[in-house]
Amino acid sequence: MLYISTRGHADRKHFCDILLEGLAPDGGLYLPEHYPQVDDAMLTRLRKAYHEQGYAELAFQILSLYIDDIPAADLKALCAKTYTAEVFGTGEIVPLRHLEDGLWLEALSNGPTLAFKDMAMQLLGNLFEYELTRRGAELNILGATSGDTGSAAEYAMRGKKGIRVFMTSPHGRMSPFQQAQMFSLQDANIHNLAIEGVFDDCQDIVKAVSNDLEFKRKHKIGTVNSINWARLLAQVVYYFAGYVQATETNGQKVSFTVPSGNFGNVCAGHVARMMGLPIDKLVVATNENDVLDEFFRTGVYRVRGSADTHETSSPSMDISKASNFERFVFDLLGRDGAKTKALFGDALSTQGQFDLSQDPRFAQAAGQYGFLSGKSTHADRLATIRDTHQRYGVTIDTHTADGVKVAREHRGDGSVPMIVLETALPIKFAQTIVEALGHAPERPAKFEGIEDLPKRVQVMPADLDLVKAYIARHCATAAQG
Ligand SMILES: *Cc1c(COP(=O)(O)O)cnc(C)c1O
Question: How many domains does the chain have?
């Protein structure tokens, strides 16, 4: 299997070459040359693999279709090491829970940081360590986080050979729980840099370091952002796991509703559907930041400025543009790299938007690709959290509430099971749960008292040179000893 860029660059690369890279050289995103097809016999084998051997075996079989430059025995061992009951809380890894007629929740948030990003990031940590060891290389991951991504990355990379993480976050602006999660890590290869500023200041610093090519090369700087193909691929697996739990025969279909921000999660659903998994609808749920809902309703993709980007109570979906969306548009346009480049490389940077409403292929977004969408507001989240708690005794988090609200609008006559992806546990967003229910959500035992643990964090001004000096100093000392 070789990988191509959505903007038509001539290079064809193997999985491990794009594993440690971000964007393709022409600024596009990587996608496989074609989607391997899962026929009836293979789907039956995958069903058995999940039910009889478990999630790790299912992951191994799906990943094998896309990775031909890691020996099978090694890949199998990496999957087995990643997807354990110990790390993900249950043997099923992503259990389905029945909520109401025709509506199910698939739990993706029982990993170390209680959000779905662990599903992919835990595998990425093991893949990075494997590949860096094989090459005798090192990687220093620099990132900016306002919460979920940073902690998922730190928990995935902690203690890994050849890897250091430098994670910037806005000082004092994450929830106490999120701060405690990140700053309580005592691993020597994890560096928390609390920047005196807002999230945009952190992101600007990361961008400036990435644009300093000499510094970047000298200090082997890399990232783990959501456009990484390996993260997306890891997410394809739980669409299969949801399907085989919700159905008994391969003739049945299911639909998924996905709380969405950067379009990474639901894009994995698109890949699973393109492989032939019997998915009826893929419903994109947004919050007030409705870039994606607007596109699927109107055909206009209009990125927002920072003044138009709302801070909401489902903050991990507060995006101004959806960084993985280009992958779907590439498929929608018949995999036309030149056309994709004209939209994402040119139109977006000059006009901040593009319009596919008059393109006959836009109509296929719903028909041929199954995409539908909807949005939710703070009041909707509160009502949905209250309602599922009162009626079913189930407390859901704010992002999952966006999903449940929108799923109910699209479940049709109920003959096709609708699976809502649960993307976080409510304890991460306790303040809004208190607002909705009048009491705090249950806290998993392993997180009792984490706010009181010693913190390992370096507070510093939003100053590029100071951050660079910190990185340079800590790369050097670690290399010596
Ligand atoms: C990251 C995140 C999302 C959004 O996922 P995308 O892949 O960016 O669409 C939704 N919910 C939670 C809790 C998240 O952490």
Answer: 1
